[in-house]
């Protein structure tokens, strides 16, 4: 059999398709999630401490992602029964930083064959040949990969940043704007750069006062947190 290639999907590409067994039954990815945002993420292994803290954090935030029309889908190179046993242990036994009784209701893919992990470039041999790195794929409602994050085995992810990325992508799409460094909902947003000398002049003349222009190519406007929150997830 030909060895499966460890490809690296890229931003802007269609998310590679696969069928898989999960803790919530079989899934056909990404077709089953058309019309929703999806965060497909991998973790190195069940019954490991960093991964346990990550799952508890995602589990605690599940309603926030649901409100943003986003489905979480996890994966590791472990079997189904290991996944089930680990998720049961998390719910029944782990009390960590005020989080306890956390039930993971989103699907966790079993991938002992590494088929999905390799399809998504989650196995990075310099880090581990047998465990997936901590990858996060943000996939939009049309099945297009919009952001990819990779973290090493030893470092737990920042789940506020994962939510910020999702809200940033949805805000950029909904309002036709770009978002500056460290943007959070309620901060000023960047309007598209002037595409003609006339617009560049208008902006620098600043007659309406709606924009703040730092130079002709760099203008921002207000976008309230309420406006952002009322639009996202719809
Ligand atoms: C962990 O989740 O604790 C972990 C997993 C693999 C390597 C190192 C740490």
TrEMBL record:
Entries under PROSITE patterns matching the protein: THIOREDOXIN_2
GO MF annotations in UniProt: thioredoxin peroxidase activity
Top-level taxon of the source organism: Bacteria
Annotated Gene Ontology cellular component terms: cytosol
Record domain Thioredoxin: where: 9-171
Cellular localization per UniProt: Cytoplasm
Residues at which substrate binds: 134
Subcellular location, principal: cytoplasm
Keywords for the protein's UniProt record, in alphabetical order: Antioxidant, Cytoplasm, Disulfide bond, Oxidoreductase, Peroxidase, Redox-active center
EC numbers, comma separated: 1.11.1.24
Family that this chain belongs to: Belongs to the peroxiredoxin family. Prx6 subfamily. Belongs to the peroxiredoxin family. AhpC/Prx1 subfamily.
The name this protein goes by in its record: Peroxiredoxin
Organism: Bacteroides graminisolvens DSM 19988 = JCM 15093
